[in-house]
Amino acid sequence: METILKVEGLKTYYFTSTGVVKAVDGVNFTMQRGESLGIAGESGCGKSTLAYSLMNLVPPPGKIVDGSIILDGMDIAKMDEDSLRNEVRWKKVAMVFQGAMNALTPVYKIGKQLAEPLVIHGNISEDEAIEKAKEILPKVGLDPNIINRYPHELSGGMKQRVMIAMALIMNPDIVIADEPTTALDVIVQAQILNLLKKLKWEMGINLILISHDLSIMAEVVDRLIIMYAGKIVEIGNSEDVFGKPNHPYTQGLLNSIPKLGTHELNYIPGLPPDLRNPPKGCRFADRCPYVMDICRREEPPMFEVGNGHYSYCWLNR
């Protein structure tokens, strides 16, 4: 399969008044054309920062400090702002931002907001862009007439569909969906997930789905990355990660999902480390039930535990 995206040694830090937060700290992965890739982990593990890094759109005081993000022969991590605007954002990589309620501007009609990426990145007139907006809306299950409505006139699910339409409007190679079902009820969540699956097959989009909800990942993605404290701890095909989880953190995440027929709730004891001063060795060591001396001394390398299934854990040595 063709590799569409290659990330090597990516480090994205936030330079705050209380110290440097190593939100993404040495991440490596590839994405193949036609696949959907999930990035999962608890809050604060670096999922969204990784997503913003893939567009070189990390909000201040954060920035990419090392590594490469290769897409179509271009290193996004080293491109200047003008090149990113003209060549990458929305043309090559687009994003469905977390929280559609806050992502849409309340004083502009939907048509104007849908047209904006085309006007800015496609260099066409607003009238032409609005006509293209009318064409994309039916693909996400919306009536073209909503271009004349304001965001407050739409339901939460309709707003999320508008955000998906905005990401698709320039037919990018990769669409990143950051927590696309946040604040939606379970029925609308299912509709949005079914829409993403439908668009993947009909439009051939390469989808990167970010969520802390593993049940959502099981529905949509082909391959899954598990992150913890700024690092990848496990990566593999969804069937392998869900069926044969290798890393103790992945096992803990899966065991914490409530199960039918039991009132017992499992959890991972302890708290994630402070990323301003991460511990030496494995960052999960303080919470791991299988911790060994080497875990506190040395960072674990990548071990192959199956066909295309990798884990960063000393238990595999």
Characteristic terms for this protein:
317 residues, alpha/beta, eight-stranded mixed sheet, four-stranded antiparallel sheet, globular
Q: In sequence order, what are the helices and strands, one letter per element?
A: EEEHEEHEHHHHEHEHEEHHHEE
N-end to C-end Cα span: 29 Å
Please report the number of helical segments: 11
The helix-and-strand class reads: alpha/beta
Question: Please, could you describe this protein's structure?
Answer:
The chain is an alpha/beta fold and 317 residues long. It has helices spanning 47-54, 81-88, 100-103, 110-122, 126-136, 156-168, 186-203, 214-220, 238-243, 248-255, 293-297, and strands at 3-16, 19-32, 36-40, 62-71, 74-75, 93-96, 174-178, 206-211, 223-228, 231-237, 303-306, 309-311. The strands form 2 sheets. Strands 6-7-8-3-9-10-12-11 form an 8-stranded mixed sheet, sandwiched between helices. It has a 4-stranded antiparallel sheet with strand order 2-1-4-5, with helices on one face. Helix 4 runs parallel beside helix 6 and helix 6 (156-168) packs parallel to helix 7 (186-203). The model has no long low-confidence stretch (mean pLDDT 92).
Would you kindly provide a brief summary of this structure?
By secondary structure, the chain is α/β, with parallel strands linked by helices.
